[in-house]
Amino acid sequence: MVNYGGDEVSALVLDIGSSSLRAGYAGDDTPKAIVPTAFGYLEEPASSGGDVAMGEAGAPEGEQPAPPKPKVKLHIGQNGPSLWRNGMHVGNPMADGLVQNFDSIPPLINHAFTDVMRCNASEHPVLVTEAPWNTPANRERMAEIMFEEFQVPAFYIANTGVLNAFAAGKGSALVIDIGQSTASVTPVVDGFVLRKGLSHCALPQLVHAHAKHMLANPTPTRPAIQLLSHQLIASKLPVDAAMPPRFQLRDDRIPGTTDTWRAWAEAHEVDEWIQSVAGVLPQGWNEQAANQQGSRHYEFPTGANYYFSGAERYSVGEQYFTHSPQLIASNPNLPKTIPALIVNAISSCDPDLRGVLMGNVVLTGGGSFFAGFADRLHTELTRQFQIVKVHAPGNPTERRYGGWLGGSILASLGTFHQLWISKEEWQEHGKAIVGQRCK
Amino acid sequence: MAASAADVRSILSIPTPSASTSTPQQKKPQAAERAKKPDGIPRELYALIGPSAPAIATQFAKPRLKQKPNLGSGGRVKWEWRPFKNAARSDGLRLSHWAKGSTEPDADYPWAKYNIQTAEYVYSQDEYSRLLEDQEWTKEETDYLFKLVREYDGRFYVVHDRYDYPHADPRFSPRTLEDIKDRYFSVCRKLVRNRPWAGDEASKNALLSSLSFDKSREITRKQYVKDLETRTPEQIIEEDALYLELEKLKENERRFRKDRDELLRTLLGIESGLPDLPIDDEGLQGPSVEPKKKKKGVASSVEPQTPITPSASNVISLAQPQPPKKTAKSAAYDILHCITRTDASQATKAPHQPVHLRSTKIPAVKPPGATQRVAQVLNEIGISHNRLVMPTAENIARMEPVLSSANSVVDMKKSLDKVEQDLRIAKARLAALRGETAEEGSGDAPQTPMEVEEGADAESVAGDRAQSVVSTKSTRSRRQI
């Protein structure tokens, strides 16, 4: 027992990401509850307009005085946004990797703990994760929610960068985390994030937008594709490839479909397409090589199906690594590419640390499962640095939920239990204790 | 077989067919028999052979399965979900974990001992104003620095990363890692130096050296590291090419030396003194641009001092093929270490003289037949000829004249004997011719034919005589033989 230093106190680990919320017991190797962070909500007619708040990512709406005080019915979990409901909006509390809207956080956590895991949070210490660029106000708010609303006996908030390094078994590492909305590069030394080297950007959103733009606009070989989800389609007939689709819309649902739900559904369709068709060339962009990879067939919910050429497929992933000059010219605030992020992070670290960090590159996050990503990253890094070792776990659980896994390891260590912020300390010191304890 | 049908019925607990009253009577004795069935006989077999079982069957032991291993002594271990007190915590938080029921509930938390605080350096206002004043640092900033170092347990990379002093002097900010380390260590050094020290001087010096920090050296070093990283690909390629070139040169050199070695072996033989060869310690010397030059220097320096001891992992080469000149120094060395050099070309004609034990080189007695007698002569003096206890070069050198003189003694004796014999025969003949002294010669007469007859034995007799020349105990030893 002392050999690996584990001492389980049945702590809960909670990892909130842009696409899903992960919760489980510390010491497990897989989260027990994986809940989509996006949720559906129905507004009561009386308060319509009170809840524009939970719009799409980026909308600044932290300071709404009394957001949806009037009744809002939340639909959370697997049957949340994916079930069509008349007039249902879709919201996501996360933006830029941070919690932007705390109103829906307690119901989400409650759903995970109570409805899925069937446990009472007041009986378990809870470890919550945070993005490395989280603000002190945000983490204090999280502590407040856990202590005041969930009555947890002890609480700790840990950094996903550090936890990803721990999940890979490293104390010092350069963590490259590709999430659904944000890509980040975090240098971790001795279990601490070097904030000066930390860099993150909304690159996955750019890739997503690129793919969506490509699908939704006509090309010489095919017309624009309607990104309708199956919830809106009554019936369809099989058609040959590149033929116009023959389908029947569910006209009864069209009026009741909100913009946020439509956007969520379209994003979902684009994601599906990216995951099955898009990729990135392992050796850098080369149109010939891309076309040699061959085309791939994909059928949309409308029944329209096309063969997507290699150039189309691989130009999507290329956005992670290079931006075309015309794109740079047209858009000055372009998110940095992955190599630029890494160079940025490394160059702001001490020269002595660079070798250590490049020898311990940890690739994590669900977005890093983009086809060919790990190979391409390795190519790019070896081109710029002499000694590079990339740790990219092949196990999907470890790659996608690395932050949760690191938290699970950390919260089950015997030596960690002195770090918990207990309820007593919270009541005594107030919010200041969070910043003091969770460095 | 009828019995088996009844058995089936009894097994399946089917009531016996509505039989007459005789059936229970029949059944009863059967039941009684079955009750008597001895152990170790299968039921079916017993039903076949009935009670007339062979006597041996009754001795069958009851078949037993292999005994289950008894794991652990005390059965189940009881685990309890129990709260514990962590000594590393300052508050009263009591978390719970599973613990063995047998353990002490109030025992110390086993992981509390890992909560180690690093040594802290704290200074007073007085000490600061006396010792620690610095142009570039205010007391407040120094305080801030010490607080951060304490907070991050001396992880200076993290301290530097989090360093954000609110009232920083713009001249000195941002502080570099070297600034921070230099200030911290210099303050600590001053404190250690100027405070009374409880321990001994050595430990104080050890502590001071552990706190030493050379700022300018660190900065230069870091600059080198940076330069190394900012090499262009062309530079790296050039460096690699140069390195390859160097390796190639070295390889050529090695091959050339090996060839020469082979050549010398075949021409001169190994007597040129294999151990005296200069040692090629290429493994020790770093990559040099001029390996030839370096090697020569090494060879000349190594050769005279350590002729025999080749250092480990070295290639022996023949860079110095001539037999080494016997300098005064090496002669003195040889004497000191009892080394004798055989001049092989004089000793034997063979081109190669293999390694040998000197004891095998003890000179042999020349005529093989004389070996025994010479040995006896030596035995008389008390020298063991066959086994020289210390066959050193000197002893061997002394042994040789001893052997040769022994040999000549034997030879002399032999010729003496012969002359005496001849003389005696001549005398006897003379006497026979004169026919006068028949009585006188009768004492010797029987001996004479005997000696003539036993010509083969003559030598041994002569040998005995030879011994008697040397030793007075000759008669005794002769009898023993």
Automatic annotation (TrEMBL), chain A:
InterPro entries noted in UniProt: Actin, Actin/actin-like_CS, ATPase_NBD
Taxonomic classification: Eukaryota, Fungi, Dikarya, Basidiomycota, Agaricomycotina
UniProt protein name: Actin-like protein 6A
Family stated for the protein in its record: Belongs to the actin family.
Stretches for region Disordered: 46-71
Coiled coil: none
Organism: Trametes pubescens (White-rot fungus)
Entry-linked Pfam families: Actin (PF00022)
Biased composition (Low complexity): 55-64
TrEMBL record, chain B:
Region: Disordered, residue numbers: 1-40, 276-322, 434-481
Bias-annotated ranges (Low complexity): 15-24
One GO MF term attached to the UniProt entry: transcription corepressor activity
Biased composition (Basic and acidic residues): 30-40
Annotated family: Belongs to the SWC4 family.
Protein task: Component of the SWR1 complex which mediates the ATP-dependent exchange of histone H2A for the H2A variant HZT1 leading to transcriptional regulation of selected genes by chromatin remodeling. Component of the NuA4 histone acetyltransferase complex which is involved in transcriptional activation of selected genes principally by acetylation of nucleosomal histone H4 and H2A. The NuA4 complex is also involved in DNA repair.
Protein name per its UniProtKB record: SWR1-complex protein 4
Lineage, highest ranks first: Eukaryota, Fungi, Dikarya, Basidiomycota, Agaricomycotina
